[in-house]
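Researcher: Let's continue the batch. This sequence belongs to Shikimate kinase, and it's 161 residues. Same format as the previous ones, please.
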Amino acid sequence: MASGKSTIGQQFAAEHGLDFADTDKRIVDRHGPIPGIFTALGEHAFRELEAREVAALVADGTPRVVSLGGGAVLDTGTQQLLAGCTVVFLDVDLDTVRPRIERETGRPLLAGDPLARWQELATRRRPTYLRLADVVLDTRGKSAADVVRELTQLISERQTS
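Model: Same format as before. Here are the structure tokens for Shikimate kinase:
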């Protein structure tokens, strides 16, 4: 959450001539704003919508970069789908995401004390992210261009080994 997945994903996809998809954007386009979904239907319903989007993107077989919402990987079905994909974990710390979180107030899971909630979610989700990741990239203190460059190198090395 707020790790830069969409920004990095879009730039990486553009540099490599790949399609890009953001599951949160697809959900918003089809069902309306995420806070409204959480309010009207709850987190469980949102996670079901999210899992369906991931399944649709993986099932069609088109090579693409997909930015998943931070909680998408908690779904066991999504985890199984991702087993056939290259999964990148953009590792980030609270100091790095602080300005992003403070700028954007529309994240339902960060209601109340956004920074404390982010830290709690990151700590709880981190083991799953690490278990699923084929590539772990520390993004702290790096520009988006630097991260894309490093990611390109890591993926290239992975493909040649």
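Researcher: Any comment?
Model: The helical segments are 5-15, 23-31, 34-41, 43-59, 76-82, 94-103, 114-132, 144-160.
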